[in-house]
Amino acid sequence: MIHNKWYNLVWCIILWMCVSNFAAAQYTSIRPLLKEGDILFQQLNGGELSQAIDKVTRGYHGHDYNHCALVVRVNDTLQVVEAIGAKVHLSSIETFESRCSQSNILIGRLKPVYKRLIPKIVKAALKAQGVPYDDYFEMNNGKLYCSELVYEAFKTANNGKPFFRLQPMTFKDPDTHCFFPAWVSYYQSLHYPIPQHKLGINPGLLSRSPKINIVEIPHSKNQ
């Protein structure tokens, strides 16, 4: 009886090690593909609000992206600076990747003619660390949401001239032409009017910019 117990335990450990090694072999970080100045896009599952954003915005090749971040080099290590959570801050590449599958991540890279701007873009983005997250999704209010951070960093690097284009925002369901209930509840909780038709930016719009190239990510067949 004791012999069988240890025998089963050993085989459980061996099986666990095999599964762990197999999973590790299937995971390949996008880090080797990245360069400073890249814009990373990802599709996060954020419930009804994310679904509402996805329904009115379209990204590269019609895909949905509701978050973005900028790749920067800090102490010889590539990281991302992003507006997520309470404020703008640095995150590791691994933290960014862990939020979704690789198939929901996109790499955008500045076209060569604009590469000269990258040092200034990075400097502007890093300087924004600590700026509160913009829960209101409005431009020029002393706060920043994810794509606004990228927009402002590029604008600053471009001598104050807009680098990416803005467009009027909509919080209405294109099928019903009424505000999404999720947005109504959200802005009611903030005691703030819905900024319908005000100019803004979103990850999908950024991903379609003619000023960037898309870097293909080779995906595992088992992903």
Task: Give a description of the structure.
This protein is an alpha+beta fold and 223 residues long. It has a single domain (32-215), classed as endopeptidase fold (from Nostoc punctiforme), CATH 3.90.1720. The protein is 34% helix and 18% strand. It contains 7 helices and 8 strands. It has helices at residues 2-26, 48-56, 93-97, 118-127, 146-157, 181-190, 203-207; strands spanning 39-42, 67-74, 77-84, 87-92, 105-110, 167-168, 199-200, 212-215. A 6-stranded antiparallel β-sheet has the order 4-3-2-1-5-8. Strands 6-7 form a two-stranded antiparallel ribbon. α4 packs across α5. The longest helix has 25 residues, at 2-26.
Largest sheet: 6 strands, antiparallel
State the helix count.
7
What does the overall shape look like?
Answer: globular
> Strand order within the widest sheet?
4-3-2-1-5-8
Report Rg: 21 Å
Strand tally, please?
Answer: 8
Structural class: alpha+beta
Assign the CATH superfamily.
Answer: endopeptidase domain like (from Nostoc punctiforme)
The percent range for strand residues is 15-25%
Write out key terms for the chains shown.
alpha+beta; 18% strand; 223 residues; two-stranded antiparallel ribbon; endopeptidase fold (from Nostoc punctiforme)
Q: How is this fold's topology laid out?
A:
Layout: H1 2-26, E1 39-42, H2 48-56, E2 67-74, E3 77-84, E4 87-92, H3 93-97, E5 105-110, H4 118-127, H5 146-157, E6 167-168, H6 181-190, E7 199-200, H7 203-207, E8 212-215
Antiparallel strand pairs: 1-2, 1-5, 2-3, 3-4, 5-8, 6-7
Helix pairs in contact: 4-5
